Amino acid sequence: MKRNLGIALATLLIFIMSVVAGGTKASADDNSLQKMKDAGVLRVATSPDYPPFEFQATIDGKSKDVGMDIEIAKQIAKDLGLKLKVMDMDFGSTLVAVQTGKVDMAITGVNPTEARRQSVDFSKIYYNGGQAFLVNKKQLKEFNNAKKLHGAKIGAQTGSLQHKLAKQDFSDSDIQSMDKTPNLIFALKNGKLDAVGLEKPVAEAYAANNKDFAMIDAGYKLDANETGAAIAFAKGSDSLASEVNKSIDKIHKNNWIPKYLKTAGKYMKDNLQDTSMMHYWKYFYNGFLNTTLISVLAVIFGILLGILLVLMKLSSWKLLSWTATSYIEIVRGTPMMVQVLLVYFGLGAVLNLSALVAGTIAIALNSGAYVAEIIRGGINSLDKGQNEAAASIGLSKVDTLRFVILPQAFKNIWPSLGNEFISVVKESSIVSIIGVSDLIYQLNVVRADTYRAVAPIVVVMAIYFLMTFTLTRLLNHFERKMNND
């Protein structure tokens, strides 16, 4: 049902986290419900870029998570007598968050497939809306039913159920996949696709709120046990699952799902009342603040770590040298995305780190490795006579390094360090996958809320450019001062 972005990576990380955190948190003595009651909080993971299931709306001047899934989570928390805490993150991270204990459950329109049941447990199906295709209304005569899509260009989210079904039933069509549903919608609107496979309520929501789109039934024959939406829990959370299933039964008995969808539709219409970028300035402003905070802290601690690593690497003690070299090679040889997820879910299994803190630590640890190599290059570029001259006037090795070597090295490597600082600003965007509300995270939220493809991208590009341009001018100023000294 819901997009399955990063399912392969998530599966790999679940295995890694099991090793780091000592395996699954479930045990024969299930205390999942009691732990939550002791804390008084129900922590729920979601990915708010999939209306009408979950998305964001501005309420009383503040951005809040809304949608059918959020209403269901509220009801579950009410029935359990707990305070609801919604934790936003990329969809590919939600099941990992459940498995590693970062959250108590994930409600994000996910399908309880057999593959996923190997990693997490699921509740009863709380909603099954069916499958549909979204098409351009001007092509409705040409594609007025699913059979006519054979041979057409069909889009679906990468790794999703819709992608799997399209490949099975439309093998003669050009099946294209993208990571984000909004990107598929924009491709459809621009004529790059003839149809997009979606969950029926999602297709209905897009069609109802955009006069250019129409919905047609997909006509798939499906197994309701795998295609409906269910709530995910950590393995062995039977007591929690039992109580949640009671809430789901209560919701079905009172027929509250249509009411939840109606409420979600109202928020979607409210979002479309004003889709100007000025209306969403707070989203971009908050993203700018978090991006700036992460970048500044990562640069400061990255420099300090880099100096420490280079001293260790140049040390005559083999243990220190080998440790620093190994760290640098591992960091430089693995993707930053994996490092961010490892710190958040791995280290977070031991220490209760927020997404912002974990993201900052991961970026700083990554930057430190590159800074170390830059500094080492600057030290090696100096004439060896500098050490001899310092020794001749009685300076110790520490004083030589502090007053002679490092100042000259930093002067030589300043342009390279400047490039690293600029890279940190741009690469910090990766923290959006764990739910940090940086610029990229807010970009995706605004695109999902407004259905506008280009304008939010242009705004974020302009903000990043102003940030890096200002930083470049500042770095050039200090470079000129060093050259004049």
Automatic annotation (TrEMBL):
Organism listed in the record: Fructobacillus broussonetiae
SUPFAM superfamilies according to UniProt: MetI-like, Periplasmic binding protein-like II
Pfam families: BPD_transp_1 (PF00528), SBP_bac_3 (PF00497)
Membrane topology: Multi-pass membrane protein
Domain ABC transmembrane type-1: 288-472
Highest rank taxon of the organism: Bacteria
Xref: InterPro entries: AA_ABC_transptr_permease_3TM, ArtM/GltK/GlnP/TcyL/YhdX-like, MetI-like, MetI-like_sf, Solute-binding_3/MltF_N
UniProt keyword annotation of Transport present: yes
Assigned protein family: Belongs to the binding-protein-dependent transport system permease family. HisMQ subfamily.
Signal peptide residues on this chain, from the entry's feature table: 1-21
NCBIfam families: HEQRo_perm_3TM
Transmembrane segments: 283-311, 341-365, 453-475
Protein name per the record: ABC transporter substrate-binding protein/permease
Transmembrane among keywords: yes
Principal subcellular localisation of the protein: membrane
Alphabetized UniProt keyword annotations: Amino-acid transport, Cell membrane, Membrane, Signal, Transmembrane, Transmembrane helix, Transport
Subcellular location: Cell membrane
